[in-house]
Write a structure and sequence with these properties.
alpha/beta; binds adenosine-5'-triphosphate; 3 domains; 474 residues; 21 helices; Helicase, Ruva Protein, domain 3; globular; five-stranded parallel beta sheet; binds magnesium ion; Rossmann fold
Length: 474
């Protein structure tokens, strides 16, 4: 039996050599080349069983011409290896129907296994999938840590099916962003993306909100209303904060998902659903199940594909990229154009980021406003992080008016219109207020939210956002 032939396209010879050695040790015959031109030359003269290819090659972006290669060699599985490690690369690899995608650095054993699987697939079912190269989507996810690459790979696998997804992660980690990416890059991108926040709807209104109602269905139902499920027809329904859904509504949701149909509250007609479900929560659903607060059967229905987004403190290597991303975002929104140096980033990476990416984003916007120089320094980062954690007493010596004056001076806002002054001032003064009230309530969030007259989830979100926690005195 002749050996299976593998083509390796890799311009980093140190990687090429080890990949080649690993494959030859498994009895494969290999050819290696370093450019698109050499690849095309080899492909025109040889039959290969599998091609392994890097993305950015010396002469060009290797992935752009891959679509053509795959059209000409529909039976040759292609495995993409890339050091780009962005969501974009993972998605592009999936769009051209690559057999597998390996962000560098990867495990050689995994690569060899994928090559064997690719050969097995080729022998049992010749491929020949259509290739789409019109990938133009705007991809807002930043971060190249191994943990985020796992997230990207998962997202890429979800684009051509309608499997239910459950996104888990602390507040501010990017759950909604991932849900949007799954929708806007996937096969339902032409349809609507409808988000509903279970924590924000009063329990008694949830069913009407999700399923709609007929005129007169209950007191106050003056007209007919189309629910979120129907609004999401042909698209994606994002059930946010699913852990906060009241038990009774969970039962109704489960029934809808099981039957694939809904009826409006007070209505008889059964409406067939064509909706992808993506749910998210920052709560521990398994614990809620144990406590009898979440239906286990609903959990399994939603959790077909789980995606775990790790907290920012577990991927500090993403902080630099995120910080620079938010600086350019801030500047595109009319804030001063600032840079940050490596020392500044190192200082950011040491902070706890209890509010995760959202807190980092807010902090970068604040630093942008406060900085008096173009480059945000380590010193400024430290100084501001200090004020974040400072005891309220120390900060509260000046009067409110004096603080307001200082805010104006610091931000040089007097003569700049369109500066969202109201929002900025609110954010500035909300923080000490929340700290003060939390202290008054001795850390009891329920009590604090009652004092403030805001929803407990809103409070929790804001505390996370500002990285405020209450430590009992003494
Ligand atoms: N990887 C990322 N790259 C760029 N921006 C991000 C990333 N992750 C999160 N963000 C930004 O951080 C903010 C919070 O993200 P998002 O709302 O998706 O978090 P969440 O997990 O849904 O939070 P919550 O649990 O509080 O609802 C948003 O402004 C979002 O755009
Ligand atoms: Mg969210």
């Amino acid at each position: 039996m002749s050996k299976n032939k593998i083509l390796i396209v890799e311009d980093d010879s140190s990687i090429g050599v080890v990949v080649r050695a690993a494959l030859e040790a498994e009895g494969f015959e290999t050819r290696i080349c370093e450019s698109v031109a050499a690849r095309d030359e080899l492909l025109s003269q040889n039959e290969f069983d599998v091609m392994l290819t890097d993305v950015v090659l010396r002469d060009q972006d290797g992935i752009n011409s891959l679509g053509d290669v795959m059209e000409q060699h529909p039976d040759m599985p292609v495995i993409v290896m890339s050091a780009q490690n962005t969501l974009e690369t993972a998605v592009r690899a999936s769009e051209i129907d690559a057999f597998e995608y390996f962000p560098k650095p990867f495990d050689l054993d995994d690569l060899v296994t994928a090559v064997k699987q690719a050969i097995a697939r080729r022998e049992h079912a010749p491929a020949g999938g259509e290739s789409g190269r019109d990938f133009e989507a705007n991809l807002p996810m930043v971060g190249r840590s191994p943990a985020m690459q796992d997230v990207y790979r998962m997202v890429a696998r979800l684009l051509r099916n309608d499997l239910s997804v459950l996104i888990l992660g602390e507040s501010g980690t990017g759950k909604e962003l991932v849900a949007e990416a799954i929708h806007s890059l996937g096969q339902r991108k032409g349809g609507p993306f409808i988000a509903v926040n279970m924590a924000a709807i009063p329990a008694e209104l949830i069913e009407a909100e999700l399923f709609g109602h007929e005129k007169g269905a209950f007191t106050g139902a003056v007209g007919q209303s189309i629910g979120r499920f129907e609004q999401a027809q042909g698209g994606t329904l994002f059930l946010d904060e699913i852990g906060d859904m009241p038990y009774q509504a969970q039962t109704r949701l489960l029934r809808a998902l099981q039957s694939g149909t809904i009826s409006r509250v007070g209505g008889k007609a059964s409406i067939r659903l064509d909706v992808r479900i993506v749910a998210a929560t920052n709560q521990d659903l398994e614990k809620l199940i144990e406590e009898g607060k979440f239906r286990e059967d609903l959990y399994y229905r939603l959790n077909v594909v789980p995606i775990n987004i790790p907290p920012l403190r577990e991927r500090p290597e993403d902080i630099g990229l995120l910080a620079r991303h938010f600086l350019s975002l801030a500047s595109s929104e009319g804030l001063p154009n600032r840079q940050i140096d490596e020392d500044g980033i190192a200082a950011l990476a040491k902070l706890p980021w209890r509010g995760n990416v959202r807190e980092l984003k807010n902090q970068i916007y604040r630093l942008t406003l406060i900085a008096r120089e173009d480059v945000i320094s380590e010193q400024l980062v430290m100084q501001e992080s200090g004020s974040f954690d400072a005891e309220p007493e120390a900060a509260a010596v000046c009067s409110f008016d004096a603080a307001l004056e200082q805010f104006f001076r610091d931000n040089r806002l007097q003569s700049s219109p369109g500066n969202k002054l109201y929002q900025k001032a609110l954010a500035e003064f909300e923080k000490p207020l929340l700290r003060r009230v939390l202290k008054e309530a001795r850390g009891n969030q329920l009590k604090a939210s009652a004092m403030l007259g805001i929803n407990r989830n809103t409070l929790r979100k804001k505390l996370n956002e500002y990285g405020i926690s209450f430590s009992k005195p003494g």
